[in-house]
Design a protein that fits this description.
Heterododecamer (2C3:3R2) of six catalytic PyrB chains organized as two trimers (C3), and six regulatory PyrI chains organized as three dimers (R2). The protein has 304 residues and is α/β, with parallel strands linked by helices. The chain is built from eleven helices and nine strands. The structure holds phosphoric acid mono(formamide)ester.
C-alpha cells in the first residue's frame, strides 16, 4: 500500500515488518551521527489541523535524520483559515512535489479521503476518534522491547476510551499480535461498540489492573467533550487515576505507558510518571524510530 491509514487494515506480519525496520532505525537514532541517506531526494510534509508536539516534531525529525526535506503546515496561519478545503490544500501540497503527506485532522476518515485524491503517500497522524496508528506502533514497539512478545500479555488501557483514537489503534494492533487487551473507564466514556472488538470491559480500574503486564493510561480529552465534562476531572482522577498503591494490583514487572501529553495528578500521579516502571520517555524516542521506518518503507512503496 502507498499509505498508512490505520492498524485495522494491517496484518500481524505487516506490523512486525514495520517494527523490525524501526529497530534498525533506532540504531541510527542512537548513533553519534544521526544522518542516514534512506530518504535522500524525498520531500515530507506534515499537515496538522489539530495541536501536536510529539507526533509532528517526531515526523519532522525522522525525515531530517534520513536526509529528506521536511516542511510543516498547520490550519492556523495557512490558507485553511481563508476557507480552503482539505482536498484542495492537500492537492496544493502534492503539486509542490511532496512524496509523503502526514495528516492530523479532527474528522474520522480524513486521511482516507486524502489518500484517494493525491499521488503522495498519506500517513494518518490521528483522525478524530478513529485511529492514531503511529502511536499504537510505537506503543507496541516499546512493549516488545521490554517484554519480547505480546502473545498472552494482559494489556490494560485505562481512562477516556470513548474519545481515544490511541485506544482504538492499540486494540486493533495489540489484539492482532496476540495480547489480551482490556479496558476500564467511566461508563460515560466507554464506546457502546467496544464489546464487538473482543476486548474485556471493566467498570472499575482495579479489575483491569489485576495481574496486568502493561498499563496504558489515557488523558481525559476535554477538547472533544461538547457538553461539559462527565465525569469531572476530580472524579475521573479519584476513580480512574493511577497511583502507586493502585498499581500494586498489576504484576510486579508491569510497565506503564502513556501516549502523552500527560496531565500530571489527573490520570497519573507525578510519582508514577517518573517511576522506574514508567517508559513514557522511551515511548517518545521509539516514536521517532517508528516514524523513520514508516517514511522509509512508504517511500520505497513496499509496506505490503
Ligand atoms: N501522543 C500524541 O499524539 O501526542 P501529540 O498530540 O503531542 O502529537
Amino acid at each position: 500500500s502507498k499509505n498508512l491509514l490505520g492498524l485495522k487494515d494491517l496484518t500481524a506480519d505487516e506490523i512486525e515488518y514495520i517494527l523490525n525496520t524501526a529497530k534498525t532505525m533506532k540504531l541510527i537514532l542512537n548513533s553519534k551521527n544521526k544522518k542516514a541517506p534512506h530518504l535522500q531526494g524525498k520531500s515530507i510534509v506534515t499537515l496538522f489541523y489539530e495541536n501536536s508536539t510529539r507526533t509532528r516534531l517526531s515526523f519532522e525529525l525522522a525525515a531530517k535524520y534520513l536526509s529528506s526535506s521536511a516542511a510543516n503546515i498547520s490550519a492556523v496561519g495557512s490558507s485553511v483559515a481563508k476557507g480552503e478545503s482539505l482536498i484542495d490544500t492537500a492537492k496544493t501540497i502534492n503539486m509542490m512535489g511532496a512524496d509523503v503527506i502526514i495528516l492530523r485532522h479532527s474528522m474520522a476518515g480524513a486521511p482516507h479521503l486524502l489518500a484517494k485524491n493525491v499521488d503522495a503517500s498519506v500517513i494518518n497522524a490521528g483522525d478524530g476518534m478513529n485511529e492514531h496508528p503511529t502511536q499504537a506502533l510505537l506503543d507496541i514497539f516499546t512493549i516488545l522491547d521490554k517484554k519480547k512478545t505480546l502473545k498472552g500479555l494482559k494489556v490494560a488501557i485505562i481512562g477516556d476510551i470513548y474519545h481515544s483514537r490511541v485506544a482504538r489503534s492499540n486494540i486493533w494492533g495489540m489484539s492482532k499480535l496476540g495480547a489480551n487487551v482490556c479496558v476500564a473507564g467511566p461508563s460515560t466514556l466507554m464506546p457502546p461498540e467496544i464489546e464487538k472488538t473482543g476486548v474485556k470491559v471493566f467498570t472499575t480500574v482495579q479489575e483491569a489492573l489485576i495481574d496486568a503486564d502493561v498499563v496504558i493510561a489515557l488523558r481525559i480529552q476535554k477538547e472533544r467533550q461538547k457538553s461539559g465534562l462527565l465525569p469531572g476531572i476530580r472524579e475521573y482522577s479519584r476513580f480512574f487515576g493511577l497511583d502507586e498503591k493502585r498499581l500494586k494490583l498489576a504484576k510486579k514487572d508491569a510497565i506503564i505507558l502513556h501516549p502523552g501529553p500527560v496531565n500530571r495528578g489527573v490520570e497519573l500521579t507525578t510519582s508514577v510518571v517518573d517511576c522506574d516502571r514508567s517508559f513514557i520517555n522511551e515511548q517518545v524516542t521509539n516514536g521517532v524510530a517508528v516514524r523513520m521506518a514508516l517514511l522509509y518503507l512508504l517511500t520505497r512503496r513496499d509496506v505490503n
